[in-house]
Specification:
Blueprint: E1 15-20, H1 24-40, H2 45-48, E2 49-54, H3 60-69, E3 75-83, H4 90-108, E4 112-119, H5 122-127, E5 129-131, E6 134-135, H6 136-153
Parallel strand pairs: 1-2, 1-3, 3-4
Antiparallel strand pairs: 5-6
The protein binds 5-nitro-6-ribityl-amino-2,4(1H,3H)-pyrimidinedione (INI).
Length: about 150
């Protein structure tokens, strides 16, 4: 039999959430989803979760990297919403947020989940932040819990 390693959804320790204020009517719904997920997986949100607010998705990576390097957190959730209609530099903001968050995870070895919505319309963002298509903040937080548990086994 091969050895199969997989992360469980066992409760985790200290978690940081980086959330951008840009499009906050969407991102704060993602934050609600993330906190709901942590608390329903047994995390004491009052004691073990730190929330860091940044102006926009472009600023998320530098904060995620600093939090990861601090050694204080088992995992980091990044939440934002980049909506095409709202900007001419959509592609740049998306690409820098994606690359930067990924680099922060690979450089630090700390699991970081990518909960930055990149949508063509506000409606698509609303659908993914607690309505028709669920709550991406909840989903990416569940993935983070799995990755924290998986990395602890490797
Ligand atoms: N930031 C976002 O998080 N979402 C957006 O849709 C967005 N738009 O549309 O411009 C956005 N821009 C701000 C950017 O993230 C930075 O905060 C800004 O460029 C200052 O560095």
């Amino acid at each position: 039999m091969p050895i199969i390693l997989e992360g469980s959804f066992k409760s985790v320790g200290t978690i940081a959430i980086v959330v951008s204020r840009f499009n906050e009517f969407i991102t704060y719904k993602l934050l609600d989803g993330a906190l709901d997920c942590l608390s329903r997986h047994g995390v004491d949100v009052e004691k073990s979760v730190t929330i860091v607010k940044v102006p926009g998705a472009f600023e998320i990576p530098v904060v995620a990297k600093k939090l990861a390097d601090s050694g204080k957190y088992e995992g980091i959730v990044c939440l934002g919403a980049v909506i095409k209609g709202a900007t001419a530099h959509f592609d740049y903001v998306c690409s820098e947020a994606t690359k930067g968050i990924s680099a922060a995870m690979l450089d630090s070895g700390v699991p970081i989940s990518f909960g930055v919505l990149t949508t063509d319309t506000i409606e698509q963002a609303i659908e993914r932040s607690g309505t028709k298509l669920g709550n991406k903040g909840f989903e990416v937080t569940q993935n983070l819990i799995e990755m924290v548990n998986l990395l602890a086994k490797l």
